[in-house]
Specification:
Strand content of chain A: 5-15%
Strand content of chain B: 25-35%
Helix content of chain B: 10-25%
Number of helices of chain A: 16
Largest interface: A-B, 46 and 45 residues
Radius of gyration of chain A: 21 Å
Largest sheet of chain A: 5 strands, parallel
Number of helices of chain B: 3
Strand order of the largest sheet of chain B: 1-7-6-5-2-8-9
Distance between the termini of chain A: 54 Å
Structural class of chain B: alpha/beta
Number of strands of chain A: 14
Oligomer: heterodimer
Structural class of chain A: alpha/beta
Largest sheet of chain B: 7 strands, mixed
Chain lengths: 420, 134
Amino acid sequence: MTLTLSDRDQSLASGEQGRAGAMAMRMITRLAEANRASRLIDVTSAHIDSCLYHGEAGLDFAERLVADGGRVIIPTSLNVATLDLLHPDLFRGDKRLAERGKRLMAAYVAMGGAPTWTCAPYQLSLRPGLGEHVAWAESNAIVFANSVLGARTGRYGDFIDICAAITGRVPDAGLHRDEHRRAWAVFRIEGVSDELLESDVIYPVLGHLIGRATGVYIPAITGLHPSATEDDLKALGAAAASSGGVAMFHAVGITPEAPTLEAATGGATPRLDVTIGPVELRRARDELTTRTEGPLTAISIGTPHFSVAEFAQLATLANGITLDPDIEFYVNTGREQLAAAAAAGYLDPIRRAGIEIVADTCAYITPIMREREGIVMTNSGKVAYYAPGNLGIDVAFGSLADCVESAQSGRIVRNEAVWE
Amino acid sequence: MNRVLLSGTATGPALVLDESLSMWGGLDPESGEIIDRRHPQSGAIVTGTVLLLPWGRGSSSASSVLAEAIRRDTAPSAIVMLEPDDIILLGALAADELYGKTCPVIVVDAATFDSIENGAVVTVGEDGSVASSQ
């Protein structure tokens, strides 16, 4: 299939609208050709993952676009970055990393990105609706946009996010197209207690299990509790996008493109059909923990970023508690949710308990934790998956309530009864 | 018929991954080492290999990590996949664009993928051909 460009696309590609536009369009067309797309389509927003520093290549790319006059033409939000600009004292990395991280953040702001600094752009007041085409990078944001909002984004990586923001265009390929949004794998939850089904702790575990098992297929999940909240689905998607390549899932009866299993699969016979019971769930839960023996040194929650609804829960759990003095406790969030939580009065009991709030970044991607020898406990499947490799630490997984209880007692405490 | 995502030539020993890998959180671009401690080949060095990576997984930041590895010359010399993956391709495209360093990305069928033995010398041709010799 040959790629046909519009007049405007050609004008951008030819450099008539500047060198940054030409480079951005060249990246988009090369991606389109690799995807055998026949045309490009408009997107209404972009979410930039590239603003987190991973080395000079990312900085070189961004600064070249800035130098060449790059400017976004659609609403563009920015992902978590290296530094917490609201609480700069939390950063424990070296000066060079801070300098590079800051330069990269400045480059994306200079191009017109909104300084949202969140991995959860779906929590922002402006978010895309059903069927809307967007260009989002950040694996958990991608899966949430496609699955929960019913918006359409490819599984985009760094570099292309800003190119889409500068051109307003992406290849007409992948998850932008109806035929690629069908489920080819079905995961059926059976024989699981109502208590576990109604608990927050099942979602990251399910996501981890499904991500590992589904391979390249979009999964459809049956048997989830209808009370599943956006935060529950956020946790599921983030874990599935960490252990697997999941860019979309269907929760039958819950997500907008899956009123029924038939709607999710398009009536086709699935290529993978898996039943998940209590045994499989316990096994997946245990995979998210690398060590339970030894000192608990930190708790990190809010990956993906904590929502106002989660701050409300934490405020209740943390009200009047005292943390063990040897425990560092971090909650990661975006600045818009932080402001809303503050306005609602949720932060006072959290701060009084000694819990530290991290904004703009996340305690598992940038040096924030003081002690790294012990075990870090989290309610995030994503942190549990990546932190051992990224930070070289041991992790223990538990529910939000388990994390708060453990922080008080100074050792890992988990509600095992819910898993019986 | 192989599918060329990014064309180029390369030769190197095959590193056949038993499981997929997210390069962010999975590859150290300074050393070229696989650092995903859950990965069966954790500790292996990808530098200069023809990396057989069945499909993409995990973080969008994998693009940046791959581009950085290519910039530092710690990357594989080519990547051969079973399924196309934008995130992997974008890292290779960005390094090609910025530094003129090309890490070809080729998609092959299962028969070809399975026929390549770990350690065999693999040659990737400009036309997307992937040939291995023991």
